[in-house]
């Protein structure tokens, strides 16, 4: 994959241009970003309910949100969209999401090596000081010759 030197990954444009995929199917959207972090949204949707008696969103869409938020954080830190694979993504659920509320997922890429990215993040439904889940994980770059300046 050849990337122009002046190209910078733009998550807002990425989400605007997206057609299909698992993230689109569950309704994940863009919220904000910085140099090494991204915030995405998972609006409440009755199709995502895991327990009909309580109306709580299932854990799978929240894991999908956090996998996507941490992936986008990596592309931001690297400055470009390049192929990668989730090697490990541990999620600790602290409490159920509040029915009717949008879940916000914030992912951060805190370290890059030549072939691995290290990430962490949290999900909440309105108050970052009251998270519903924490994640930590690693991703592997799948494109040959993708060494980064930070990881050489």
Q: Could you give the topology of this structure?
A:
Blueprint: H1 11-17, H2 22-26, E1 29-33, E2 37-42, E3 49-51, E4 56-57, H3 59-78, E5 84-93, E6 103-112, E7 116-124, E8 133-141
Antiparallel strand pairs: 1-2, 2-6, 3-4, 5-8, 6-7, 7-8
Features of this protein?
8 strands, globular, alpha+beta, single chain, six-stranded antiparallel β-sheet, two-stranded antiparallel sheet, 3 helices, 152 residues
If you had to describe this structure to a student in words, what would you say it looks like?
There is one protein chain. The protein has helices at residues 11-17, 22-26, 59-78, and strands spanning 29-33, 37-42, 49-51, 56-57, 84-93, 103-112, 116-124, 133-141. The chain is built from 3 helices and 8 strands. By secondary structure, it is α+β, with helices and mostly antiparallel strands. The model has no long low-confidence stretch (mean pLDDT 90).
H/E element order: HHEEEEHEEEE
Query: Could you list the spans in which at least 5 consecutive residues all have pLDDT below 50?
Result: none
- The structure class reads alpha+beta
- Per the principal axes of the C-alpha atoms, what is the gross shape? globular
Radius of gyration (CA) equals 16 Å
State the helicity in percent bands: 10-25%
Mean pLDDT comes to 90
Task: Describe the strand arrangement of the main beta sheet, using strand numbers.
Answer: 1-2-6-7-8-5
The helix tally amounts to 3
- Spatial separation of the terminal alpha carbons: 19 Å
The overall strand count is 8
Main sheet attributes: strand count, strand direction, barrel closure: 6 strands, antiparallel
Query: Hey, roughly how much beta strand do the residues contain?
Result: 35-45%
């Amino acid at each position: 994959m050849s990337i122009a030197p002046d190209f910078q990954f733009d998550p807002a444009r990425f989400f605007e241009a997206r057609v299909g995929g698992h993230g689109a199917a569950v309704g994940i959207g863009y919220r904000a970003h910085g140099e090494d972090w991204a915030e995405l949204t998972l609006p409440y949707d009755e199709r995502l309910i895991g327990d009909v008696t309580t109306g709580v969103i299932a854990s799978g869409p929240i894991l999908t949100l956090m996998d996507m938020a941490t992936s986008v954080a990596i592309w931001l830190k690297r400055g470009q969209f390049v192929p990668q694979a989730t090697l490990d993504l541990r999620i600790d659920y602290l409490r159920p999401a509040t029915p009717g509320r949008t879940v916000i997922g914030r992912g951060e890429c805190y370290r890059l090596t030549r072939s691995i990215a290290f990430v962490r993040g949290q999900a909440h439904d309105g108050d970052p000081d009251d998270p519903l889940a924490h994640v930590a994980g690693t991703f592997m770059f799948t494109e040959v010759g993708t060494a980064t300046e930070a990881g050489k």
